[in-house]
Amino acid sequence: MIITEFLEATFPSTLFPSDIAIVVAKAGMGETPVLPEEEIHIIKAVEKRKREFRAGRHCAHTAINTVLNNDTNDQTPIKVAPSRMPCWPVGIVGSISHSGSHCSAIAAHSAKYLSLGHDVEKAKELESNVHKMICTTTELAFIAKHSASNLPLSTIIFSAKESIHKTYSPINGHMLDFLDAEIELDLKNQCFKACIINPEPHPKVAIPHLTGSFAISGGYIYTGIYLLAPTDTEPTL
Q: Same CATH fold, 118-228 and 21-116?
């Protein structure tokens, strides 16, 4: 059996503000058990899933320590919600992602950020037979128009939608399908706008659109979204 080791990568600095903690998995994290309340979620999982889960939780705890300025390891279990999303501690928002030899977590204070989402994917095009499952007709037209860009556009869109899901779902408890959001990519500035075209019918927080950024580095596509918490004035989306 071939076991892919997690390789520490340089996470693109353009995706998030400096007060959002970013932690990338190091070698050995996948084999190191996490808290008992977390390990229980992977008792019956295959080895690959166990390693991804452990590395993600170790990264998440380190990110939480950074946000809270803790000198010791965070011991609050990050359990798994019925939606399969991580249950972050009170006062913290975050996101976990893994792909191939990369695994990372981000975290921030919920007093400033309402939600965070990030995703990492290998920088290669999706198989053409899944394009219509992921992309709207408008997105498919964009991919065709910019085919000469030599960028894995379908995977950038896929990753952006994963980041959207991680940002939207924890707030509204609603699982978005890939075709429930439509992406407008800005290739020059490496950012995107997303319109939620099929939202939760009665959302806790109405989110008609989101904005995010993407980057390609070290053979991976990175996408990220941060949603500011409402203030006494108009909320920033």
A: yes
Parts of the chain with a pLDDT under 70: 1-5, 7, 71-74, 232-237
For the beta carbon of residue 124, count every other beta carbon within 10 angstroms.
12
CATH 3.90.470.20 fits 21-116, yes or no: yes
pTM: 0.91
Superfamily (CATH) of domain 118-228: 4'-phosphopantetheinyl transferase domain (3.90.470.20)
**Is the separation of the CB atoms in 222 and 216 below 8 Å?**
yes
CA distance 121 to 222: 7
DSSP 3-state of 30: coil
Q: What is the helix (H) or strand (E) element at residue 132, kind and residue range? A: helix 131-134
Whether the CB-CB separation of 130 and 178 falls below 8 Å is answered with no
- DSSP-derived 3-state class of residue 24: strand
Model confidence pLDDT, tens digit, residues 104-156: 999 999 999 999 999 999 999 999 999 999 999 999 999 999 999 999 999 99
